[in-house]
Every structure is written in structure tokens, then in C-alpha cells.
Amino acid sequence: MRRIVLCLFLMLGLAAPALAASCGKTGAGFDAWKKAYAAEAQAQGIGPRGLAALAGTRYATATIKADRSMHSFKLGLDAFMEKRGAATIIAQGKKKKAQNAALFKKIEKKYGVPAGPLIAIWGMETAFGSFMGHQNTISAVATLAYDCRRPDYFREQLIAALQLIDNGTLSATSTGAMHGEVGQTQFLPKNVLLYGASINGGGIDLNEKADALASTANFLKGHGWRPGLGYRPGEPNYAALQGWNAASVYQQALAIMGNEIDGN
Q: Which InterPro entries does the entry mention (predicted)?
């Protein structure tokens, strides 16, 4: 009996580190977690380049701080639009539409999405590509995959990010927003895999406006966008905007700004 108890004790002792490494609330266990997670990533087909990138990640304290500080989505619509500079986005967006008329015509012909919602997203996410973030993408996603708040969601994103490294779309030094979003319209890694598009052919580069806007249109099409129909609340294409961001106030702001830019 003593031998059985001892064996059970040892088995529990061996299991404890794995259980403890399942997620963490501080950076203390991050290095041990990523080493353990590498085996799972490899089992899901991640190759040497992706595994090397995972091994090189660091716990992103700034990402955790940003993840706990997303207060603007709790504002009312008017306050949210003021905080996000909606009037400026609309004014500049109309100019961007005129300056890039051929590009937006090409995108609408291919995906059925007009310029307005694309420009509204572009302006809201990165001020038309002027600020795409400086956080290391792989470290940001790995940190959130380790963090106990939403590990399952971000582990999917992490696998996608490592796949993008394996196929050359991202590198271990790629940078973007605090949650691992990349490019001029801020795509999470899984969405790059699903909807990333190159309007002019060749490789996908979401840091370039043409690919970023085409990919955004492809995303909206993939979420049910129907050419020629409206996208205000209650209209058929509003659901596609809801797919872009879960916050109701964000969705409403996109619809308002996009329709203003489109002249509707």
C-alpha cells in the first residue's frame, strides 16, 4: 500500500508543473510555459522557423497592461466618436477616397465592398497607416496565449502567427499593435491566414495599403457582405461590420463614418 501511495504521489508531483504551466497571471512562469507549449505547436505542424520564433519571445508586460485598459469601448457613441477623432477621419477619409479612386474601384469590383467602410476601418485602426504599433507581434500573442484571461482564443492566434512565420508572411521581428494585430487595418494572425489578400498579386504585405484594404474587404465579404446593400444598423451588411469588432459602439461608429465618406 505504501508503494502505491508513493507512486501516486510521484505521479501527482510530475503532473503539477504541467497543470501550473497551463496559464499564468504574471510573467514568472512564461519561459517554462513556452518551452512546454513548443511541443504542442510542433504537433500542430509548426516548423523550425516558427518554433525558433516562439523560443525567442519575451513576456510582454505592455501588452498585459493594454489588455486590462480598454476603457473606450465602454463610452457612449458620441463620446467614443469624439475620442477616436471621427470628424477628422471623415474629412481625411473623403480625400483618401478621391486620391485612391482606382484602387477602391478595383477592390469593390472584386469583393463588392465600397470605399466608405474600408476607409473608416483604416482611419480608426491606424490613422491611415500612420501608426501601426511597435510591439513585437509574436511576443504579444504568446503572452496573451499564456495569460489566464483568454488563453484558448489567443492560442489559436499563436499557432496562426507561427504558421505565418513558417510561410514567410511574418518574421520573428515583426511588430504591430499590443494584441498582436498587424498592418494598416490591424489583422490578428488567424485573420491574416483566412482573409489576407494581395490585390495586385504576389505575396501579402499588410503594411502596404493596397493589400491591407483588399484583405479588409475580403474579411467583410467572408462575413456575409452583400454588394450594393446598406450597412447601417438594421441593414443587411451591418452584420459584417459586427464581425470586425465585437464592441457595439465601434460598429455604430464605423457605420456612421463609412456612410459619411461614401456620401450616403
A: Lysozyme-like_dom_sf, MltB-like, SLT_2
